Amino acid sequence: MGALSNIRVLDLSRILAGPWASQMLGDLGADVIKIENPEGGDDTRHWGPPYMASEGGGTTEESAYFMCTNRNKRSLCVDMKTAEGQARLRGMAQDCDVLIENFKVGGAARYGLDYASLSALNPRLVYCSITGFGQTGPLATRPGYDFLVQAMGGLMSVTGVEDGEPGAGPQKVGVALTDIMTGLYAVIGIQAALAERERSGLGQHVDLALLDVTAATLANQATNYLVGGLNPTRLGNAHPNIVPYQSFVARDGHLIVAVGNDGQFRRYCEVIGAPELAEDERFLSNRDRVKHREQLVPLLQARMLERDKAEWIALLEAAGVPAGPINTVADVFAEPQIQARGMQVTVPHALNPALQLVGNPIKLSRTPVQYRRAPPLLGQHGDDFDS
């Protein structure tokens, strides 16, 4: 029995942010009913290649993208453009605890599936809306996409090589991080509303906006501006508030050194054969090192070229200085620590009994995450709801 095995979720969302939220709820035990358009289903079913291999080694029409965010769900095809489909969904909403949707603002109301309509039928319903810009404000009616919002929300302004260096310019993050973070915030909001429902007996509307989430997750970069008046810029792989906390080039490639305090800096200087740098008044404290970053980093970089990256990592780890390689995705899933933590799992699929998926990082001692269902085929569970 999962932690949320008493919860039923009606998932009207598609693409990534909403399905990420519903997958997380499903991993935690909720019964998630994924509603899909009979004509093709979730758009991401077609976002390939790559596609999942079949048991016999051929290629299926099930995209890897869809697989990443739709396990532990039942797929039901409903044409919500029809009166019959709308009535069916309103009936289902009366028996659900949570509804997740990512229509444009006002879109659900056209089908009678908005919060006001459904909460009148089921006052206990926790209704979560995910949009680009939220239900209110001057941009509310605009469509929003992860890439667009990474730009508008400031994330791209602090991601990429700093000005004046080769390859300079703003960059998006290598995954749709705004969508992912919005999905996670949605789960937090949903669970908070469910917990409050235990006291009041009433559900509520959870309003999530990609732009809000992007601004919120700027974290220290946002407060560097709000508190310190500093408008952050791109620093490549360096940190705006800690030095040295960045990538360095060793004799055979790149590695990361993440010095978090003055004691680690002294040990780092000893390891690289430059203990005098830790005594230099320009570099005594982190405040000093941030101020004199441009003088310090070239001195450190010159030393880092003297050994291979594996040598440096071993020496620094032995000295208690955080350091590590820059892994590829293939390297990550070959990492013994990742394997030991169950971050690669086998989930039997209708077309492939050995489907490999990324595991859930939440480890609960009494009600652990369970992988009950592989990402469904389109409409695979229609028979479950025909009675």
TrEMBL record:
It comes from the Bacteria. GO terms for molecular function: CoA-transferase activity. Keywords: Transferase. SUPFAM superfamilies: CoA-transferase family III (CaiB/BaiF). Transmembrane segments: none annotated. InterPro entries: CoA-transferase_III_domain, CoA-Trfase_fam_III, CoA-Trfase_III_dom3_sf, CoA-Trfase_III_dom_1_sf. It holds the Pfam family CoA_transf_3. PANTHER family: SUCCINATE--HYDROXYMETHYLGLUTARATE COA-TRANSFERASE (PTHR48207:SF3). This is CoA transferase. It comes from Pseudohalioglobus lutimaris.
